[in-house]
From TrEMBL:
Entry superkingdom: Bacteria
UniProt-annotated stretches for the region Disordered: 212-232
Keyword terms, alphabetized: Cell cycle, Cell division, Chromosome partition, Cytoplasm
Pfam families noted in UniProt: SMC_ScpB
The name this protein goes by in its record: Segregation and condensation protein B
Presence of the UniProt keyword Cell division in the record: yes
Length: 232
């Protein structure tokens, strides 16, 4: 019993000291136990913090485990830490991100066809913010780049894996604001690239000599409209 209590405490300490999610296999190896036992102890820790209703919760997120702040205190914490970095996305770029998430891997041309407007600047912005990345090339003439979401996408949206995404029907029932996590700010203006991002890292089809062109139009105002129309 004492060994079990010790290992449970060790897992808790390892997670507390980490600023990134830790995979189950790594936690098991670090604590010298099997993955099945580690998962059982982690499940107990998740319940312990949930029942405590304190400032922290333990969650399975982005393929690992990590402590997060309790959403009960999000408003107060936002006021205290006003300078906390938040990614800023326009509604059109959030639409684009939603399509990539549900249809990945997807090409730029396929994105444009779904949205009915150019998505090049939006994809470039999402890549610069580490929410989208190039994941390969489609085996068709021209071999266009395929795009998919990143691990940072899972972190921002509090997901353990892509399978945890709400279904298109569930997204449709959400208000637009409910689709917006605490680490994302929504703006009516166009997006800019992350100033620290090297544009030379963009795929060739996103490279431009001048500034990225502005979106032609915002054809939708809610990601659920895109998902519903295209029957994802």
């Amino acid at each position: 019993m004492e060994d079990r209590k010790y290992i449970k405490g060790l897992l808790e300490a390892l997670l507390f000291l980490s600023s990134e999610p830790i995979k189950l296999s790594s936690l098991a190896k670090s604590s010298g136990i099997e993955k099945t036992e580690a998962r059982e102890l982690l499940d107990e820790l998740i319940l312990d913090y949930q029942e405590k209703e304190g400032g922290f919760l333990l969650r399975e997120i982005a393929g690992g485990y990590q402590f997060i702040t309790n959403q009960l205190y999000s408003d107060a914490l936002s006021n205290i830490f006003k300078d906390k970095k938040r990614e800023t996305l326009s509604r059109g770029t959030l639409d684009t991100l939603a399509i990539v998430a549900y249809k990945q891997p997807i090409t730029l041309t396929e994105l444009d066809e779904i949205r009915g407007v150019s998505s090049r600047a939006m994809v470039a912005s999402l890549i610069s913010k580490k929410l989208v990345k190039a994941v390969g090339q489609k085996e068709v003439p021209g071999r266009p780049t395929l795009y998919g979401t990143t691990n940072d996408f899972l972190l921002h949206f509090g997901l353990s894996k892509l399978a945890d995404l709400p279904t298109p029907v569930e997204v449709k029932e959400l208000k637009f604001e409910d689709f917006n996590p605490e680490t994302i700010s929504i703006t009516e203006d166009g997006d800019e690239l992350n100033p620290d991002f090297d544009t030379k890292l963009l795929p060739e089809e996103l490279q431009v000599h001048d500034e990225l062109e502005a979106p032609l139009a915002e054809s939708v105002s809610d990601p659920s409209e895109v998902l519903e129309d295209k029957s994802l």
